[in-house]
Amino acid sequence: MMPETLSEPIPLKADVHGVIRVGGTRVPLETLIAAYREGATAEEIGEQYPSVALADVYASLAYYLRHRPEVDAYLTQGEAELARAQEEAKRRHGNWPDLRQRLIARHAR
């Protein structure tokens, strides 16, 4: 006999920085979504990230598919924050590739 309702907890939890991690691991949700968008199956994703249980990969992908607008908004926000941080680093520290070339040139003298 089946219970009237079946429910499993969603294996996603935000860390102190607001990054959503999968199944109690350090693997961020955006990593699984990126692999899925590139065409990887749940099994392939599980092989790439063995610390994430296969059931958690499936549950995370199911959550993404059921809540795509919200998850896409989260991903977009994360990309925007990364871009802002990169711009701030460039503003504060200059252009790193240029700095690297100057250091190499100075060392070659």
Basic shape: elongated
Oligomer type: single chain
Helix content: 55-70%
For the terminal residues, how far apart are their CA atoms? 81 Å
Task: Please give the largest β-sheet.
Answer: 2 strands, antiparallel
Number of helices: 5
One letter per element, helices H and strands E, the order comes to EEHHHHH
Strand order of the largest sheet: 1-2
Outline the low-pLDDT stretches.
none
Provide the gyration radius in Å.
20 Å
Percentage beta strand: 5-15%
Keywords:
5 helices; mainly alpha; 6% strand; elongated; 109 residues
Quick synopsis:
Helices cover 62% and strands 6% of the residues. With 109 residues, it is mostly helical.
Write up this protein.
The mean pLDDT is 90. The chain is elongated. With 109 residues, it is mainly alpha-helical. Helix 1 (29-37) packs across helix 3 and helix 2 packs across helix 3. It has five helices and two strands; from the N terminus they run ββααααα. The protein is 62% helix and 6% strand. The protein has a two-stranded antiparallel ribbon with strand order 1-2.
Topology:
Blueprint: E1 12-14, E2 20-22, H1 29-37, H2 42-48, H3 54-66, H4 68-93, H5 96-108
Antiparallel strand pairs: 1-2
Helix pairs in contact: 1-3, 2-3
